[in-house]
Specification:
Helix content is 68%, strand content 0%. By secondary structure, it is mostly helical. It has one domain.
């Protein structure tokens, strides 16, 4: 069964990579300022979360072919990727599906892969694939680290260059609302990320591989080493 999921992970990662490259190439051919476009393109949470997901899937495939179970640190990174992709799925379909984003022409098939099918696969892979370990609750807050850094980067850069990847982050989109409205969206989405992350961690503890050591030892095993 591990090998079956290894093959599925390679196929899913390939689909994500093709979707990202396809959208990038299409948009790059239509924008007036390629340099600004490249930075903007890789400032979308969707692109970053999908890129992370593709890397995680390929690494996970390698582990599936070579090991009976996944290393604890990989379990944590995979939990982060699953959380971000699930958030992408929900936020896009609730807030952004009918909005045209300023990245030239959107490829429909690429859009669906990045916002629907890839996130769905990540969630199913997390639930069904064997070899996953139990993630200690003490590591739960690592899931929030990347989204927090991304929001800080997005708001600082947006204030400088006047460009935001999503309308709900732009304080000038709704006159009279400004940063108060943005804050509401940020808090709501951050709360949702934490909710999804708690579900992902909780699922890892239902039928997941138990740590070999004591709970404290299991926590230590999750701590990244230098280098």
């Amino acid at each position: 069964m591990r090998r079956v999921f290894g093959v599925l992970r390679v196929a899913a990662a390939a689909a994500i990579i093709v979707a990202i490259v396809g959208q990038f190439a299409k948009s790059l051919s239509m924008v007036p300022d390629p340099a600004a476009f490249v930075v903007n393109f890789f400032s979308f949470f969707t692109i970053l979360s999908n890129a992370l997901a593709a890397i995680v899937l390929l690494v996970g495939a390698a582990y599936a072919f070579r090991r009976a179970s996944d290393p604890p640190l990989f379990d944590l990174v995979r939990a982060c990727a699953t959380t971000y992709m699930a958030t992408t799925l929900v936020v896009y379909n609730l807030l952004l599906r009918d909005i045209s984003l300023d990245q030239a022409t959107t490829l429909p098939w690429s859009n669906e892969i990045l916002h629907v099918w890839a996130p769905l696969y990540l969630v199913l892979d997390w639930v069904l694939a064997p070899g996953r370990g139990r993630i200690p609750w003490s590591r739960f807050w690592w899931i929030a680290a990347f989204p927090m850094a991304w929001v800080v980067y997005t708001m600082i850069r947006g204030a400088i260059v006047g460009w935001y990847p999503y309308p709900f982050l732009d304080p000038d989109v709704s006159p009279g609302v400004g940063y108060d409205g943005v804050s509401v969206y940020v808090i709501a989405i951050a709360s949702f990320i934490l909710l999804v992350g708690s579900g992902v961690v909780g699922l890892s503890r239902i039928g997941g591989r138990a740590a070999k050591d004591s709970p404290a030892g299991g926590d230590r095993a999750m701590t990244p080493t230098a280098g």
